[in-house]
Design goal:
Layout (H helix, E strand, L loop, with lengths): L1 E6 L3 H12 L5 E3 L14 E2 L9 E2 H14 L3 E3 L3 E5 L5 E5 L4 E9 L3 E3 L5 H5 L5 E2 L2 H4 L7 E5 L3 H10 L5 E5 L9 H9 L3 E4 L2 E7 L6 E6 L5 E5 L2 E4 L3 E3 L30 E3 L11 H39 L4
Parallel strand pairs: 1-2, 1-8, 2-5, 8-19, 10-17, 11-12, 11-17, 12-13
Antiparallel strand pairs: 3-4, 6-7, 7-8, 9-18, 14-15, 15-16
Helix pairs in contact: 1-2, 1-7, 5-6
This protein binds NADPH dihydro-nicotinamide-adenine-dinucleotide phosphate.
The site of NADPH dihydro-nicotinamide-adenine-dinucleotide phosphate has 20 residues, from helix 5.
Length: 327
């Protein structure tokens, strides 16, 4: 039986693996059969991860994190988790391959998935003008005309942030009122670089090598129009990947896994959660990595307490046997 199994291979999962491996816990990381490395695998330059002054490509950063975890003895499995049994002292992880692994603790770091528009060209032009992260990619759109899709706080925040770089930012919303908080709305309304396009959804994203424009469709009369832009930021929400633990771990009203205060402790003893799957607000590589650290330290502490109480119980049993009549 393992001491720790880590589910997920983004910055939270790999950082938890680095810490757990350095603590001699010999973690097993279930890293996905499709794409190891999480959302950063879809990012190009990462310029805000401390320590890389010249920036680093998202996939390269994840390769480095994996190599660092493996250097200290983490074992990586290229498979997907099919189901989890988390009750009791022995946790069971069943993989898509059919293999079953057991551990005393689980660190759940499955991240979150950006909602997508569902357009064919959205996939093709990702990293070529289509982005889900203004703090990651905004810098590349200096003096460009760009668009942000969405009417929530994320869209307002991204649009306002992007005006630091872009010459013009369209905010395209499918309704005629925003879901965003009033303060975020006001900030966007007051920004001279932001122009709202109401009652419109994106019917297509144009561009060969890079984004060159949008086809917008009116949600009122279904009429279409073209809008030339060079960058598209999609901010229509984010879903934490919790399907494996629905009904098992407590969730927050935002849909993230509930943890105890600043710790990574979930509602089930021995199960810890880290990264975007517990974070409705920040969702940065560096905050996910920090969260992975917390989970590894919590798991280490939990295992030490388990061992102490097992030793205590054994000592009591020995004393009781020695004191028994006839001993
Ligand atoms: P929200 O779910 O709040 O908003 C999503 C927006 O995207 C809505 O306006 C929705 O439209 C629109 N949308 C959803 N699907 C589509 C689609 N397929 N096509 C077009 N538009 C679509 O998500 P956010 O990420 O904005 O916010 C999530 C949470 O995080 C919120 O609680 C928010 O308050 C919080 N947050 C807080 C911030 C802060 O305080 N600094 C910053 C960012 C987020 P419609 O309104 O029509 O449903």
């Amino acid at each position: 039986m393992r001491q720790v199994i880590i589910v997920g291979s983004g910055p939270a999962g790999f950082t938890a693996a680095i810490y757990a491996a350095r603590a001699n816990l010999e973690p097993l990381v279930v890293a996905s059969s499709v794409e190891v490395g999480g959302e950063l695998m879809n990012t190009t330059d990462v310029e805000n991860f401390p320590g890389f002054a010249e920036g680093i490509q998202g996939p390269e950063l994840m390769e480095k994190m994996q190599a660092q975890a493996e250097r200290f003895g983490a074992e990586i499995l290229y498979d997907d988790v099919e189901s989890l049994e988390l009750d009791g002292p022995v946790k069971r992880v069943t993989l898509a391959s059919g293999a079953v692994h057991e551990a005393s603790t689980i660190i759940f770091a499955t991240g979150s998935a950006y909602r997508k528009l569902g357009l064919a060209n959205e996939e093709r032009l990702t990293g070529h003008g289509v982005s889900w992260c203004a703090t990651c990619d905004g810098f590349f759109f200096r003096d460009r005309t760009i668009a942000v899709i969405g009417g929530g706080d994320s869209a307002m925040e991204e649009a306002t942030f992007l005006t630091r770089f872009a010459s013009k930012v369209y905010v395209i919303h499918r309704g005629d009122t925003l879901r965003a908080s009033k303060i975020m709305q006001d900030r966007a309304f007051q920004n001279e670089k932001i122009e709202f396009i109401w009652n419109s959804e994106v019917a297509d994203i144009q561009g060969d090598a890079a984004v060159s424009g949008l086809v917008l469709k009116s949600t009122v009369d279904a009429s279409t129009r073209e809008l030339p832009i060079e960058g598209l930021f999609i901010a229509i929400g984010n879903d934490p990947r919790t399907h494996l633990v629905h009904g098992v771990l407590d969730l927050t009203p935002e849909g993230t896994i509930a943890v105890d205060g600043r710790s990574s402790k979930t509602s089930v003893a021995g199960v810890f959660a880290a990264g975007d799957v517990i974070d409705p607000s920040y969702r940065q590589a560096v905050t996910a990595a920090a969260s992975g650290t917390v989970a590894a330290l919590d798991a280490e502490h939990y295992l030490a307490l388990q061992e102490q109480s097992a030793q205590g119980a054994q000592a009591e049993a020995t004393l009781a046997a020695a004191a028994a009549p006839g001993a």
